[in-house]
Amino acid sequence: MANTISRRSFLKSSVVAGAALGLGFYDSKKIGVKSQFDAIISNGVIYVGDGSSPFKGSIGIKNGKIAAIGDIGDSADSIVNAEEMAVSPGFVDIHSHTDGNIRYAKLGDSKIYQGITTDVSGNCGDSVFPLGGWKSISDFNNEMEKMGIGVNIRSFIGQGTLRHVVIGDNNVPATKDHIKRMKYLLEEELEKGAIGLTCGLEYTPGSYASDDEIVELLKVVAKHDKTFAIHMRNEDDRVEEAVAESIDMARRAKVRLQISHLKTQNVANWHKAPKLIKQIEDARASGIDIAFDRYPYTAFSTGMSVFIPLDYRQGSTDEIIARLKDDKQSKEIAKYLNNKLEKLGGAKNVMVTSARLAENRQFVGRNVEECAAMTNLSPWEFMRKILIDERLVVDIVGFAMNEDNLKMFLSHPMGMPITDCSAYSPVGKLGENMPHPRAYGSFPRFVGKYCRDENLMDLSSAVRKCTSLPASRIGLKERGLLKVGYYADILVFNPLTIIDKATYSEPHQFAAGINHIFVNGVWTIANGVPTGKLGGRTS
């Protein structure tokens, strides 16, 4: 774990000559370039994003890109006074699920208000293409560009989605023809701009794939020099084996590996965190390009259907519901579910966060123990009933991790913060349920709570973890750094006040301390208020 540092060290802003940094600074007067910009961010403390010491200066924006850094004059259409503010690249959320919600939150409300300017969707093996309304990433990207979006969106292809399209949702081995078809679809999407492949091996139908099947897909990813991100098969009792499996697949395919939301779930497994770190460090020392991410909270969020055994989760929704209703099969499901609840410390540690039916809205925000008491049912009986009523679509939050391990993961040189959440908005359709507070607070919580208030690392290091590090993991070009010629994705925030406000009981609260945001040079947030302009892109 990183050594603790003082608050003063965290906030220090060493002012050095821009020319000495080699960061693209130039003197416009010396080289004869007109000192005319679309916007200037003036006199801020600039954090380039590479972990280097900050310096005081201004940034000139022209035609959507950073045109100058340093002492650049004041000739611009708009000038942002960033005195005593931190100026950094926009944050990059490498693990998100925004693709399903973006239609209802074009601004990317909960994301952009925590400083995120690039949002990476299609994680955990689940992408919105090639299926449904979007048959390819091109269809999705075209619709997003036409609609207008507030944040940049990049997309993975989900291995589970590929398996669903080619094989279906049953636990059957993939044939050579199946694999050939999946590889063809994957190749098409990668060529059209997808940034890699994700697996969600805790979820169906991706969980039914063998390692050999996945490796064949990963060879395509490696050929295109793209990224493999994995939600592992297990994050509790067999987490060490799951890390080893992930590393082995990456080694066999010679592909870049990103372990998603690394955790040690349930108290019996908390002691395993140092072992996981050693596995990852040993893999990196052996030549594997590996890193990991984690949201800065000790509670997870997923669908309640994960409490159903894998073999009972195959097939259609109606088939799964029929098993829940069947006396014989439901007894086996109950045994599995109750065992999971016990390992979590009981039904009190699982909170219901969504429901579509009016009669079930009373349970949202309550733990399963409370819900069971309200209905005079056992926890198992309540969970079976609401799963049937809601046709399996019930979200939960589970309290299962600890602070020490969280800090160990966040402070590691190859660890980075994420939201692991979709975009939400306090109003309209997306404000109806109670998402995990990470949807609104992950990045400000990482910077404000863990790095500033708890001295986990200095601000330069924290900014790197939010910007250039995740950008490098997905091959993001000309983003993640404040550098001349790079896209003007720029965040201006108050280092003394940036903090999350969202809680488990009141999640729809924007973070504090976010002052200004530019996305591709478009001034999107001004003095904490949306300008109405959308600068997000899909390429």
What's this, in brief?
The protein has 539 residues and is α/β, with parallel strands linked by helices. Helix content is 33%, strand content 19%.
Structural class: alpha/beta
Helix content: 25-40%
* CATH superfamily membership of the largest domain: Urease, subunit C, domain 1
Distance between the termini: 36 Å
Which key phrases capture this entry?
539 residues, alpha/beta, Urease, subunit C, domain 1, 9-stranded mixed beta sheet, 6-stranded parallel beta sheet, 18 helices, globular
SSE inventory with pairings:
Elements: H1 7-11, H2 18-21, H3 28-31, E1 37-46, E2 55-62, E3 65-70, E4 76-81, E5 86-89, E6 91-93, H4 109-112, E7 116-121, H5 137-147, E8 152-155, E9 157-158, H6 159-166, H7 176-191, E10 196-200, H8 211-223, E11 227-231, H9 239-253, E12 256-259, H10 273-285, E13 290-294, E14 299-303, H11 317-325, H12 327-343, E15 350-352, H13 368-375, H14 379-389, E16 395-399, H15 403-411, E17 415-417, H16 438-453, H17 459-466, H18 468-473, E18 490-493, E19 514-519, E20 522-526, E21 529-530
Parallel strand pairs: 1-4, 1-5, 6-7, 7-8, 9-10, 10-11, 11-12, 12-13, 13-17
Antiparallel strand pairs: 1-2, 2-3, 5-18, 14-16, 15-16, 18-19, 19-20, 20-21
Helix pairs in contact: 7-8, 8-9, 9-10, 13-14, 16-17
